[in-house]
Write a structure and sequence with these properties.
The protein is an alpha/beta fold. The chain has helices spanning 19-31, 51-58, 62-77, 128-135, 152-164, 184-187, 210-226, 228-236, and strands at 6-10, 36-40, 79-82, 86-88, 102-109, 112-123, 173-175, 179-182, 196-198. The protein folds into two domains: 6-206, Spore Coat Polysaccharide Biosynthesis Protein SpsA, Chain A, CATH 3.90.550; 207-237. Helices cover 37% and strands 20% of the residues. Strand 5 (102-109) and strand 6 (112-123) form a beta hairpin. The radius of gyration is 17 Å and the shape is globular.
Length: 237
C-alpha cells in the first residue's frame, strides 16, 4: 500500500500554540507542496480510547497522549507524523514510495545515540508494527514517573531491539517486516542532508533529580565502554 501525502501532528489541551510551533507548521506547508495537514486533537481523537490515554490526558501529560494518538492515526490512515518541534528542510515525497513500510531514523540527543527517533515517522496504513505497538498499551496504566516514564522512543526502541534485531548504530538498517531505519542525519540532527531536524522541546520531560542526573551520566559512560547493544541486553535482564 502506498504511503499517503498527508502530515499528522498533535496538539492537545486546547491551549494556544506558541509562535515557534506556528512557525514550524508554516514551514512544513511551505516545503511540503501537495501535502495535506491534519491536527490531531480532542475533536478527532477519543481521549478515553483506553485507560492509559485517559489517565495521561487527565494528568495533562499531553505528550503521552500524543504517543498513542500518532500510532493510532498512522495505523488507520497512513502518512507522515511530525512532532511540533520538528523543522522540515526538504520535501519528503521520495519516502512515500516505500510501499507497505514504516520509516524511522535513529536519534541523537545531547550528542548521544539514544535509540529510535519518533519526531518523524512515515508509514503505510495498517503496518503490523503499528498494531503491535498499539497493543502494548492495552493492559498498561499510565503512571507519571517524571523523567522515568516510558516514552514512545524507548517503547519503540525496545520492541525493535527485542523483536526485529535493531542495532544501536547510527546507520541505514533494513529490518524484517518492511521496517526501514535511516541514520539520525536524515530525520533528526541538523546537517546539509537532513530532511527534518528535531529541535526537542521535550514536553515529556520533568526536572531531573540529582540522583537521576548521576545515574544518567553513569549510564552514558558504561554505554561508551561496553557498547550500546551490550548495555541494552544487560539492562533488560
Amino acid at each position: 500500500m502506498a504511503i499517503q501525502n498527508v502530515v499528522y501532528y498533535c496538539w492537545f489541551g486546547s491551549t494556544e500554540k506558541p509562535a515557534e510551533v506556528e512557525q514550524y507548521i508554516a514551514g512544513w506547508k511551505a516545503v511540503l507542496d501537495g501535502f495535506s495537514f491534519v491536527e490531531i486533537n480532542e475533536t478527532n481523537f477519543d481521549v478515553n480510547i483506553n485507560d492509559y490515554v485517559r489517565a495521561a490526558y487527565e494528568a495533562k501529560r499531553f505528550a503521552f497522549v500524543s504517543d498513542y494518538a500518532r500510532l493510532y492515526f498512522l495505523n488507520q490512515f497512513g502518512g507522515c507524523y511530525l512532532d511540533t518541534d520538528v523543522e522540515v528542510c526538504r520535501p519528503l515525497d521520495e519516502f512515500l514510495s516505500f510501499d507497505d513500510s514504516i520509516i524511522f531514523s535513529m536519534e541523537q540527543f545531547d550528542h548521544e545515540l539514544t535509540g529510535v527517533n519518533t519526531g518523524t515517522i512515515i508509514s503505510s496504513a495498517g503496518h503490523p508494527l503499528l498494531q503491535q505497538l498499539l497493543a502494548t498499551y492495552d493492559d498498561e496504566l499510565f503512571s507519571d514517573l517524571g523523567d522515568a516514564t516510558l516514552t514512545i522512543n524507548k517503547r519503540i526502541t525496545e520492541v525493535l531491539v527485542s523483536d526485529y534485531e535493531l542495532k544501536y548504530r547510527d546507520a541505514r538498517q533494513h529490518l524484517a517486516g518492511s521496517i526501514e531505519i535511516f541514520p539520525s542525519s536524515v530525520f533528526c540532527v541538523e546537517n546539509e542532508e537532513a530532511y527534518t531536524v528535531h529541535r526537542y522541546a521535550s514536553s515529556w520531560r520533568t526536572q531531573l533529580s540529582p540522583l537521576r542526573k548521576v545515574r544518567r551520566r553513569i549510564g552514558q559512560f558504561v554505554k561508551r565502554i561496553i557498547g550500546r547493544d551490550r548495555f541494552a541486553r544487560w539492562y533488560k535482564k
